[in-house]
Amino acid sequence: MASSTGEAGTLTSASSLSARVPFTFPEVDGEQLKSDVPPIPPPCNHVNCEGCWKRYPQSLFPNWSPSQVERSGILDVIEKYNRSIPCTIHRVDIDDRGYFTDPGKYELTEQAKDASWEFLIQSHRPVNTRVRSLFVENMSGPVLQKLGAYYNIEPFFFSSSLSWTPSRFQEEVQPGRGDRKGCALVLDLLAVHLIRNVEGNTLISYHTSGREATSAPFLQERMHYAGQSVYWQNIFQRSPDPTFVLLIFIWVAICAWDEALEALYARICWLETYALDTSDIFITRELHIIRAHYFQFPSLLEDVRKAVVFILDTPNPAMDSLPQEEKQFSRTLLEKECRNLLSEIHRLEMSRRMQDQRLKNALNLVFSTTSINNSKRMRKLTEAAVRDSTVMKQIAYLTMTFLPSSFVAAIFGMNVGEISPGTNETLPHYFAIAAVLTLLTV
């Protein structure tokens, strides 16, 4: 989700849920077509430009018309940011010995915009610094413009990051000097812009302000902690290539994936046990929700894989200035580390498939258990119906046996003149009253 250009070139990578393409043709601006301003302005030394950052991105990229800046979302960040919250830049430095240090964080407030620009354009890093990593928290409009103007960042990096649009490309590569490289991973946004240059390497990590997003302090802490390990110390001591810093970011994402799948696996095991012990059909709702997320995971893991392949296929042009033996050693080491990452991604995909199969098995188990329980209930109902039918038959047999004799006894017990002489009632009266009562009853 990034793009950029600069003196030494640009390399940017991104991954996202959306399928938007960052190079969509904007609406044609008639005024821009009539303009005599060159499409590529001369480089700015940031000394007597009177704050060229205030006109970014048009100051460096005249083709970005005001309407395009507005549609890309950059204008909203420039004008509608929260001025009461300072932007904090957390830093990690890597020196030429491969040591990771924390030079401290730097806050950029609304009241000190010009002072922060002077701080940015003046070099404050030690001379032996190989890579300086900047983790931007609560990025404001002025900070976006300052970083973009000073590091000559293509606006596509910010527009793609703001809209979570995937993009990977490299431009203006200068052999023996350097380029720029970026990477972004989503669902949680990870947008990284790496400037690889023989004069100094700089990494910029953009962090969205979402509540559940990975924060700048968290990622800065992970980067600093990784630098304390013997494994990464050996890599940075043996190779001067700053590209290995990007691999740390990818490993952070891989570890997050591993933890997420582990938590989901524990939940799936509990759901399987619960499905065995109960016939609650409502458990299928949670199973379907989890499986819906699993359907999304393959595309996200594929984005991670593409990011690793992109890093592998875009070597650092600045490495051309090194001796062939040292250059080949760094390249071999980078290929080995990328293969390790690709192997981990494949393992995560296999784990995802296995868990998806267990989810499917749990769903089938719930449906099978429910069907078996329904069959048992139907069997009990059938047995009860059979018992009721037997009782009804017995009642019918008893009725058929005693009804004739009871009828005869009732007839002979009637107090009518035909049977008992001297009474006033007759059989016609009996049948008339019985017929009327029968009709009323029916």
UniProtKB/TrEMBL annotation:
Its main location: membrane. GO terms for cellular component: plasma membrane. Coiled coil: none annotated. The keyword NAD does not apply. Transmembrane segments: none annotated. The keyword Membrane applies. It is a multi-pass membrane protein. InterPro entries: CorA_TM1_TM2, MgTranspt_CorA/ZnTranspt_ZntB. One of its GO terms (molecular function) is magnesium ion binding. It holds the Pfam family CorA. It is found in: Cell membrane. Keywords: Membrane, Transmembrane, Transmembrane helix. It comes from the Eukaryota. SUPFAM superfamilies: Magnesium transport protein CorA, transmembrane region. This is Uncharacterized protein.
